[in-house]
Specification:
By secondary structure, the protein is of the alpha+beta class. It is built from 4 helices and 4 strands. The longest helix has 13 residues.
């Protein structure tokens, strides 16, 4: 499984419906399962981003499909990063020669 970190900002709609944010998170966790995506950690944060979420997904296409689906609901915008564990990074570096 590949790991992803999403930096999330609420849209104006998401802010207007802020009281429902934990309910929306639960619904998004269920929606993610349909794409083979798993929430590993979810944090509401202070600063430039409203949430930071760590996901596992089978591949980039599954992650992109899930994010497009949840984004189309209009409550959040995301910036998503592909993350590598130390073991994965060692494998990447080993290929440098």
């Amino acid at each position: 499984m590949a790991m992803y970190i999403a930096l999330v900002n609420f849209t104006d709609q998401g802010v207007r419906n802020l009281k429902d944010t934990t309910k929306r998170a639960d619904a998004a966790k269920e929606m993610a399962k349909k794409f083979g995506v798993t929430f590993k950690e979810l944090y509401w944060t202070l600063g430039s981003y409203d949430e930071v979420i760590v996901f596992d997904a089978p591949d980039d296409a599954s992650m992109a499909s899930f994010l497009a689906s949840v984004g189309s609901l209009g409550n959040i915008r995301t910036q998503t990063l592909r993350a590598f564990s130390q073991a994965e990074m060692k494998g990447i570096l080993a290929k440098l020669g």
